Amino acid sequence: MLDVRRLVLLRDLAAHGTVTAVAELHGVTPSAVSQQLRLLEEETRAELLERSGRSVYLTAAGHRLAEDTEQVLAALERARARLRAGSGEPVGPLHLACFPSALASLAVPLGAALEGTHRGLELHITEAEPEAAARLLLQRRVDVALVYRYTNLAAPRPAGIETRLLQTDPLVAVLRDDHPAADPAGAPVDLRELADTDWITAPPRTACGDAVLQACRSAGFTPRVRHTCTDFSAMVALAAGGGHTALIPRLATHGLPPNLTARPVTDRGLARTIETAVRQGTAHQPAVAACLAAAALLPEASGPPRS
């Protein structure tokens, strides 16, 4: 019989590409991963990996087994869910990962809703960006995650995880009131109107930074970046102090300083989707199902632009 833990390592190698990445995901050494993969080859009596120097690639047989592993893992999760389904009211700890800008507006109300309807559940919240949240899910360190995806970036969903759309969070331009594009009537801003201003963005190779850069380039210019940071509240403070432009999710515009305004942009498709994420096969587990149901009933969290 094949060792499921070794199958998971093969699946993760197919998804992440390197033994080092798989080792980091599971908190073990690369040599330990390599040893387990060799044992899996012995168990299957098949050549699953092709080794070239320090690089390792899946063979055709390896890819087929990695794909079949997804079905095996989902079946095991469904079996666990069926065993727990007869236990009645969901009880015990439930671990939720949530990205920073949704902690106050989504995770806290979700916790209150669960506490009000399922007193036997004990919610534990961990702050984590989507990539880290996916790792925590696969490591079984969290049960549910609130994640986001920018609509203008092609971000693949991690293997072994299924998501459900919760809401859409449009990007808005944060401007000082004296900015020429800060129309007091609240008209949408064409990004081309902001081509000659200084910008505040997230760093390159972050989801927000790449989404803003892609949006500006699609509008025909490369933003002149003055400041880079990952904290949306810091972006707002910098915009208020220096009059620079920021393009951030509407969810992050609560409590703007009085000299700032948030304006929608003309490209209404420019947004991030907020989703719930769980491991495949776990959505019907009582505690997870309760969390997903409560999340679906949350009022849409939004920060309407100030006029």
Task: Write up what this structure looks like.
- The chain contains nine helices and eleven strands.
- The protein starts with a helix and ends in an 11-residue tail after the last helix.
- 39% of the residues lie in helices and 24% in strands.
- Strands 3, 4, 5, 6, 7, 8, 9, 10 and 11 form a nine-stranded mixed beta sheet that branches. Strands 1-2 form a two-stranded antiparallel sheet.
- It is globular, with a radius of gyration of 23 Å.
- The protein is an alpha/beta fold.
- It has helices at residues 4-16, 19-26, 30-44, 60-85, 103-117, 130-138, 207-218, 232-242, 286-296; strands at 49-52, 55-58, 92-98, 121-127, 144-150, 161-176, 198-201, 224-228, 245-249, 260-264, 271-279.
- The longest helix has 26 residues, at 60-85.
List the helices and strands and how they pair.
Layout: H1 4-16, H2 19-26, H3 30-44, E1 49-52, E2 55-58, H4 60-85, E3 92-98, H5 103-117, E4 121-127, H6 130-138, E5 144-150, E6 161-176, E7 198-201, H7 207-218, E8 224-228, H8 232-242, E9 245-249, E10 260-264, E11 271-279, H9 286-296
Helix pairs in contact: 1-3, 1-4, 2-3, 5-9
Number of strands: 11
Low-confidence stretches: 303-307
Measured on Cα atoms, how large is the radius of gyration?
23 Å
What is the string of SSEs from the N terminus onward?
HHHEEHEHEHEEEHEHEEEH
Structural class: alpha/beta
Give the strand content: 15-25%
* Average of pLDDT: 89
Distance between the termini: 65 Å
Q: Give the biggest beta sheet.
A: 9 strands, mixed
Broad shape = globular
| Total helical segments | 9
Q: Helix share of residues? A: 25-40%
